[in-house]
Amino acid sequence: MNERKRMYEEYLETVRELKALLYSRGLTYAYAAKALGVSPRTVGFWFNGKSIPHPKYIEPLSKLLHIDAKELAKMFLTVREYRKYEDIH
Question: What own/partner pairs with CB < 8 Å and gap ≥ 24 does 67-72 have?
Answer without folding.
Answer: 67/21
